[in-house]
Design a protein that fits this description.
- There is one protein chain.
- By secondary structure, this protein is mostly helical.
- The protein folds into two domains: about 150 residues, no CATH class; about 325 residues, Neurolysin, domain 3, CATH 1.10.1370.30.
- It is about 65% helix and about 5% strand.
- The protein has a three-stranded mixed sheet, with helices on both faces.
- The relative contact order is 0.12.
Length: about 500
């Protein structure tokens, strides 16, 4: 690389290092922070946000970009063009956002998290209304600063997944919804559904220490490097950090042992992606992920296509029974597989099975669109949520804790993030079928406890690409097809059609 590119990388990496420090404070806020320190943490986050903003909007970055972009970036390598393109995107955002706004937003994000946690605990949506109204105001202001004031929701979608628009999501979700709703009805009408519920009720009294040991063994076996990461407990499972320091969280319930395990495998998928990015280019266009939809594809693929499969459990079931002999004595292998793949509508997104989960995301997407169009006011969210839940999931929340207060995302202004979960499911299914085409005996690897081929294939085709391509282009290049819900529908019909006798 030439000297201008080298200097640009150094400045970009410095800003990213500072942002990572803020990320660690955010992780600590949800894992370790004493309740009485919430206000101080908000001030700390604001102060650090100002430092990150100064580093990100450093005039020297602009001068280097102008130099490197001369003549359409002619003479640069593909890698250098990727780095310059992403640096330009980040620099334009940083320089268009006033420092005072950045501090205000960081303070509000911190306060919003604690306000949400209190409102959720107390089932008190009224106290949360001012927070959401403020968050929407900040998002609209941010979009306006970036010249997207006439399309703030498209701006938020693009922020999480570059190039994505509401129109594109509408088209994909519309096609999926037409296929998914009747499939859910078929499955839930099957007598197998009741048997799955009965098996799930047998899984009780699993000691937390044993669960923690088992999930650590599983996540380590599929490839997570605990020398560069850790897992803790939080109110809402998440993954943050960098490939050199991945911070994952989960939550344990003695009577729901599969919940912590599968959510931890989900977060491990995120962690594996981060650990697969080029560490020496962290923070540049080659050292950051391609967007949240691709990130979610990695977590959902490991959680669903891999960890809910029979071959996966052929390997891990003996160890599971060894750790929990009394709790598993009355459960056969077929019953365990049914419990792992139980399908039953639930009010809570994070507890949803992989079939109905997508309906939860469509619900949130449709509500977000209404919020941003002005059709829906914040104060009317609980009633709108109830109607949408009844229509899409077939259930009505008894309270706001089961409804509009269940998710953390909006507390930090992360509107436009939810679609990435469902898009991630689509991408995961498309990647899965491509991997099977290349390695037809892939699941035989799982039965031997060998996940190395799949991980290396993802590393080569997804992780190491960084942000060289947008999500839609990456899918097209890796699978040879445009992103579509059809592979996801095919996968769900194949796995659950046979299991539920459809």
């Amino acid at each position: 690389m030439n000297s201008a590119t080298t200097e640009l990388i150094a400045l970009v990496k410095r800003a990213d290092t500072l942002a990572n420090i803020a990320g660690l404070l955010g992780w600590d806020e949800q894992v370790n922070l004493p309740p009485g320190a919430a206000e101080q943490r908000g001030a700390q986050m604001a102060a650090l946000a100002a430092v990150v903003h100064t580093a990100s909007s450093e005039p020297r970055i602009g001068a280097l970009l102008a130099q490197l972009e001369q003549n359409g970036a002619a003479g640069l390598t593909d890698d250098e063009r990727t780095i310059v393109r992403q640096a330009r995107r980040d620099y334009d955002v940083a320089t268009k956002l006033p420092a005072a706004f950045v501090e205000e937003k960081a303070t509000q994000d911190s306060r919003g998290y604690h306000a949400w946690a209190r409102a959720r605990a107390d089932n008190d949506f009224a106290s949360y209304i001012p927070v959401l109204e403020k968050n929407l105001e900040l998002v609209r202001r941010e979009a306006a600063y970036l010249g997207k004031g006439d399309a703030p929701y498209d701006y938020m979608l693009d922020k999480h997944d570059p190039g994505l628009t509401a129109a594109a999501v509408d088209r994909l979700f519309g096609e999926l919804k037409r296929e998914l709703v009747p499939l859910v009805r078929q499955i839930t009408a099957s007598p197998v559904t009741a048997r799955a519920r009965t098996v799930g009720e047998k899984l009780r009294g699993f000691p937390i220490d044993g669960q923690r040991a088992f999930l650590r063994e599983v996540t380590g076996r599929i490839g997570f490097d605990y020398n560069r990461g850790r897992i803790d407990v939080s109110l809402h499972p998440f993954c943050s950090g960098t490939g050199s320091d991945v911070r994952m969280t989960t939550r344990y319930k003695e009577d729901q042992p599969l919940d912590a395990l599968l959510s931890s495998i989900h977060e491990t998928g995120h962690g594996l992606y981060e650990q697969g990015l080029p560490a020496d280019l962290l923070g540049t266009g080659l050292g950051i992920n391609a967007g949240m939809a691709v990130h979610e594809s990695q977590s959902r693929l490991w959680e669903n296509q891999v960890a809910r499969s029979r071959p996966f459990w052929r390997f891990f079931e003996p160890r599971w029974r060894e750790l929990f002999p009394a709790q598993t004595a009355g459960v056969s292998s077929d019953e365990l597989y049914l419990a792992i793949n139980a399908v039953e509508p639930t009010l809570i997104r994070v507890d949803a099975d992989e079939v109905t989960y997508n309906l939860h995301i469509i619900l949130r997407f449709e509500i977000e669109k209404q919020l941003f169009s002005g059709e829906l006011a914040v104060r009317d969210l609980p009633a709108a949520w109830l109607r949408a839940s009844r229509e899409l999931v077939g259930l009505e929340p008894a309270n706001d804790r089961e409804g509009v207060l269940q998710d953390v995302h909006w507390s930090g202004g992360a509107f436009g993030y939810f679609p990435s979960y469902c898009l991630g499911n689509m991408i995961a299914a498309q990647l899965w079928y491509r991997a099977l085409a290349l390695r037809p005996d892939l699941e035989a690897d799982f039965a031997r406890g060998d996940f190395s081929w799949l991980l290396e294939w993802l590393r080569e085709n997804v992780h190491r690409q960084g942000r060289r391509f947008s999500a839609l282009e990456l899918v097209r290049r890796v699978t040879g097809e445009e992103l579509s819900p059809r592979p996801l529908v095919r996968y769900l019909r194949e796995r659950y059609g046979s299991l539920y006798g459809l």
